[in-house]
Design a protein that fits this description.
It is a single chain. With about 270 residues, the chain is α/β, with parallel strands linked by helices. The protein folds into two domains: about 100 residues, Elongation Factor Tu (Ef-tu), domain 3; about 110 residues, Rossmann fold (3-Layer(aba) Sandwich). Helix content is about 20%, strand content about 35%. The strands form three sheets. Strands 4-3-7-1-2-6-5 form a seven-stranded antiparallel β-sheet. Strands 11-10-9-8-12-13-16 form a seven-stranded mixed β-sheet, sandwiched between helices. It has a two-stranded antiparallel ribbon with strand order 14-15. The radius of gyration is 18 Å and the shape is globular. It starts with a strand and ends in a 7-residue tail after the last strand.
Length: about 270
């Protein structure tokens, strides 16, 4: 069951003029969070913002082996993310979680590919650590608009994750979107056992899912949806899921997801 805590800000690390990672003292949440799950946060006690907003759990913070908190990766684009960007050590943030369905981990004899676009990096720190603990080789395919929006590269490298980068302006890695090097990797994999995970803007998830299907593979996608409650009560986060008769129905991403098989969703 999720828990609702008033989490103290441990630190606020600004990665750029718009991106930051905020660390929260929330041991109750950290102890039970699984890769791919999220929290609903509200950084103010007034009426703005009125509702909490969803954020993937980025890192599990530990004191030796004891979970003491979590971090969330945020980009300043609205009232909630502005307040998170401006938060100071010692501030209190309402935090409800963990919520949602986690990623399914592969068997130890498989390889894992994590495919991230922008802040879609967020669920992959916890996943990378879980994969490493199982002895599973992993690769992070990470795309952004430009080089200065590629974060935590050394963090992943220190944990044995191979990096494949792309930028739309060509300033780092391959020139273009992350599907460019990903397509080459699928071509080269040729039947190897690979578990694929993706998170990022919905057009990217659609492109990755369709690309994987073209090579006879599926991908676990973590969808990004605006959520009012995070617990299935408001129906603000529905996504279309395929039905056996060729139609579709709507499911709530906060409780049926946010992780889905890419092949199960309607992308058009």
């Amino acid at each position: 069951m999720p828990v609702d805590v008033e989490a103290r800000v441990i630190r606020n690390t600004r990665l750029s003029p718009d991106y930051n990672v905020i660390a929260l003292a929330a041991p109750e949440i950290a102890a039970v969070t699984r890769p791919g799950q999220f929290v609903m946060v509200r950084p103010a006690r007034g009426l703005d913002p009125l509702l909490r907003r969803p954020f993937s759990v980025f890192e599990i913070l530990r004191d030796e082996d004891r979970p003491i908190g979590i971090t969330i990766l945020s980009k300043r684009i609205g009232p909630t993310t502005r307040l998170l960007f401006e938060a100071a050590e010692g501030d209190t943030i309402s935090c409800l979680g963990p919520l949602g369905q986690p990623f399914a981990l592969p068997e130890p004899d498989a390889e894992a590919w994590m495919i991230a676009g922008g802040v879609g990096l967020a669920p992959f720190a916890t996943l990378a650590e879980s994969l490493a603990a199982r002895g599973i080789r992993s690769t992070l395919f990470y795309g952004a608009r430009r080089a200065d929006e590629l974060f935590y590269l050394s963090w992943f490298e220190q944990r044995g994750v191979r990096l494949v980068l792309s930028t739309e302006d060509g300033s780092a890695g391959a020139h273009g979107r992350i599907t460019v090097p990903l397509a080459a990797a699928f071509q080269a994999a040729d039947g190897a056992r690979v578990a694929c995970y993706a998170c990022g803007p919905e057009p990217m998830l659609a492109a990755v899912s369709q690309l994987a299907a073209g090579f006879g593979r599926d991908v676990q996608v973590s969808v990004e949806r605006v959520m009012g409650c995070g617990m299935g009560g408001c129906y603000s986060c529905v996504v279309p899921m395929k039905t056996p008769d060729g139609g579709h129905h709507y499911v709530r991403s906060c409780i049926s997801g946010p992780v889905f098989a890419g092949s199960s969703l309607v992308w058009d």
